[in-house]
């Protein structure tokens, strides 16, 4: 009897950014690489076939999702993106933007029929603006841009869930030990909460970040509020081995 296909996970982490002239851009995202490696190890333990990619340009990021359309997939497809960003955009290591709408378009039923019925789950660690939630840096992963998040929501293809580290218009936080958001994801995946339905698991992450996390130092007292959008039609349990 043949073994079922493994679910796939694509983890993209950008830590160093340069212009076309080779000049350093933004800030180095210390702590992000080790965090991504831990997530990759955890997903592998949960029986995912993981592809971990470090410091990819905007075009290379698009190409990675194009490649997923040619792969054989199991029950789920999970992608974690950790980079500098702004509302609706994440940046390649060449400091060029990649619109989230472009990624979603690549994985749409029309462009990627192999993923049509497979739940696609995104966790995005990147800023979505410049505002600080006074209600977390150390370092912020952002560049200024007018928020336009609603159009991004409309572009999300069927059977897709997207969880953002922060609310529209706000910064996401990162320090040398990692980000509040992905550290909370790691904690949940390493604990018994991994057996929860996805919407409950994400709500648990919301609680973990909003209630248990708080910035220190320069931004003492600042908070972060993750949020997610889903158009799944049924409960799924992607991390319950």
Automatic annotation (TrEMBL):
It comes from the Eukaryota. SMART domains: CASc. InterPro entries: Caspase-like_dom_sf, Caspase-related_regulators, Pept_C14_caspase, Pept_C14_p10, Pept_C14_p20, Pept_C14A. Residues 178-240 form the Caspase family p10 domain. GO terms for molecular function: cysteine-type endopeptidase activity. Residues 5-131 form the Caspase family p20 domain. One of its GO terms (biological process) is proteolysis. Gene3D superfamilies: 3.40.50.1460. SUPFAM superfamilies: Caspase-like (SSF52129). Belongs to the peptidase C14A family. This is CASP3 protein. It comes from Ibidorhyncha struthersii. The lineage of its organism: Eukaryota, Metazoa, Chordata, Craniata, Vertebrata.
């Amino acid at each position: 009897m043949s073994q079922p296909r493994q679910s796939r996970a694509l983890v993209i982490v950008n830590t160093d950014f340069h212009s076309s002239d080779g000049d350093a851009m933004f800030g180095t995202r210390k702590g992000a690489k080790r965090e991504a490696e831990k997530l990759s190890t955890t997903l592998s333990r949960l029986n995912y076939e993981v592809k971990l990619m470090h410091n990819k340009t905007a075009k290379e990021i698009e190409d990675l999702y194009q490649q997923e359309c040619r792969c054989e997939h199991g029950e789920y497809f999970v992608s974690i993106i950790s980079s500098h960003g702004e509302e609706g955009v994440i940046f390649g290591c060449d400091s060029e933007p990649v619109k989230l709408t472009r990624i979603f378009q690549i994985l749409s039923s029309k462009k990627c029929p192999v993923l049509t019925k497979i739940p696609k789950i995104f966790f995005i660690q990147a800023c979505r603006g410049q505002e600080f939630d006074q209600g977390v840096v150390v370092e912020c992963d952002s560049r200024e841009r007018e928020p336009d998040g609603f159009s991004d929501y409309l572009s999300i293809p069927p059977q897709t869930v997207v969880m953002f580290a922060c609310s529209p218009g706000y910064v996401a936080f990162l320090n040398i030990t990692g980000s509040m958001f992905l550290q909370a994801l790691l904690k949940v995946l390493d604990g018994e909460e991994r057996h929860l339905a996805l919407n409950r698991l994400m709500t648990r992450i919301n609680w973990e970040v909003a209630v248990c996390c708080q910035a220190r130092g320069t931004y003492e007292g600042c908070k972060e509020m993750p949020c997610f959008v889903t158009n799944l039609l049924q409960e799924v349990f992607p991390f319950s081995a």
